User: Fold these one by one.
Assistant:
Number 1:
Amino acid sequence: MFNRRSALLGLGSTLVAGCAARRGSPEPTPPSVASTPSLARLAADKGIKFGSTVGAGPANSGSFRNPDYVRLLKADCAIIVPENEMKWQAIRPSAETFDFGRFDEMLSFAGANGLETRGHTLLWHRPEWMPAWLEAYDFGTRPATAAADILTRHVNTVAERYRGRMSSFDVVNEAVLHDSSLATTALSRAFGDTLGLLDLAFHSARKALPDAELVYNDYMSWEPGNEGHRAGVLRLLEGFKARGVPVDTLGIQSHIRIDSLDGQTGVPARNEREWRQFLDAVTAMGYGIAITEFDVNDQVAPAGITARDQMVADFAKAYLDIMFAYPQLKTALLWGMQDQHSWLQSFKP
Ligand code: XIL
């Protein structure tokens, strides 16, 4: 049976991430794989850290409690990132309390297996991903001060606990909407200035994590329809520079999508030229770039597995060839090692 990993390794000069097994089917491991270097090794040879997200769910999920999943992580990854365990929803049960239990377990797992961990995320700036208590919070008579206190306390507490154990953090996640405007949350409305709140997140992170790579992370992508999102991210990054906000790197989530097929060529639609222009503009401002959450949404690809996998591989290769051409790219992570455990199974079934 077609095995994505071996096919992707065969892509030669491009290091391509293999979302290994097909939905629900057992994962065949051809003998050749055992003798090929790991993806982490191939990436390291190019100066890139390679890894994947992992969860803390039950043993039948994409979790560090799942021995099969752990085998995949250990075979190919140098670094992991928590899928949900460091988000506010996980570590902030209330305004007064922190709960680091599950994330600490994950960090111990990583340490015991020689894997690095990166931080995701200090502020996912979307109301639907904030804890319910915060969206309903009473910010009192001095809302701007209360909002600043909540945010800085969060950043400081997480940073103090994990300083030195992670070298890169997604400080702010997804602040830009598809139409290029900024998302607002109860926190930013209480603060009274959305950009100011994002700046504050980075300034407090820099103070608390002087040596860490500070990342702005978002999902603007190369498919048609992303023009507004890319423009909004560029504007945000320009603003950070102009105001002297300490942002080191743009995290490019890289949830790439086979959305529609080009009428003439039959290949999945994407705007390669515009994508390169976007990356050129980002790197020209002095930012690093990172692939933080790579996966391929193949919802509209042909149903036959061989044709579908080939289309995914070609689409992924075209994307990664562009990305790996930038020497500023030092990190490449998958959002999961196995299709059957991917978040896309529920997000885009
Ligand atoms: C996703 C997780 O994979 C899901 O389990 C969760 O329900 C929602 O979040 N962009 C991000 C990630 O920055 O944190 C998201 O992870 C996927 C999109």
Note: The radius of gyration is 20 Å.
Number 2:
Amino acid sequence: MRKQRRVQEVQPLRRRGDAIFVIDQLLLPRKTVYRRCATPRETAAAIRDMVLRGAPLIGCAAAYGYAFGARGVKTASPAVLRKLDRDGALLLASRPTAVNLAWAVARMAGKARELHRAGSGRFYAELLVEADRIAEEDVSANRRMAELGARLLRPGSVVMTLCNAGALATTGIGTALGVVRRAYRLGRVKHVYPCETRPYLQGSRLTLWELMREGIPATLITDSMAAHIMKTERIDAVFVGADRIAADADVANKIGTYGLAILARAHGVSFYVVAPSSTVDLSLRCGGDIPIEERSSREVLWVGKHPIAPRGARARHPAFDVTPHRLVTAIVTERGVVRPVNGAVLRRVLGKAR
Ligand code: MRU
């Protein structure tokens, strides 16, 4: 087993009392600045503006945001529940694709109703405990997926990844990047190619930053280089995260994932998705039903303060795409590995009756 370089763990979200402090990911890798969110509105704004991002982390932040809406409440009334419903709706509206957000808000709303029914005198405190629990479960899900995913690789593998599915996207070691981390320690990964991930550059700004801190050998490529690198270098596998997985096992993830899956298939490269069960949405029949966030075209037409297209140019910015399940070699969840990838196996691994 490789010795791990001792670096301070990345903690994109910390709770201190009645607030969370989140790393402003828009400022990475230049500086690490924590921003305070202490209300549902502040939390929703941080999610919407991508101060924090990544499906599992969005879910954890939303859970805290929901709890903050009940600050100071010892015993809930129907009016408190109605106010929390409004807070939940505000959080839900912040970003549409990652289902972890809706999952976390629904879980918190369920807990709120349970506490109300039981006449709890510790309403706010118990909601905070539930949000802490969601964050802790994410840590252990990450660890479990890392173990399961690392087993899919032969020693000395070279892998490619897109976007950031690392510690910055979760409260643990990451989903896809958690697997890479673990596999590197076991000697199963020797090199990583992160794709830069236009237009938000999560691959170059965040994933490469995480890899370099830990001394994991990595070479940045632009998204358009992926085919060439797959053809001319040895790439053993692609690992990506997910924002939502529909009942047929189709996968929504960062824009560019679908293209990468097609390239992987064309070059005989395994294509793995790593995501916790909270990312699965069995209420949606197929990938085509997944809402795809359309962000501002300014994010495509500008890099920082610099325009990179003629004045008045039009652009599109779908932030996610859907990869058909037939292009996915396996989906790694904390409950087990879905392989072959289809709706029936997904349900079986998740332990859901047909
Ligand atoms: O727009 P982002 O940065 O929130 O998109 C993130 C992704 O697409 C990740 O791959 C996904 O959330 C999985 S994170 C563990």
Note: The longest strand covers residues 189-194.
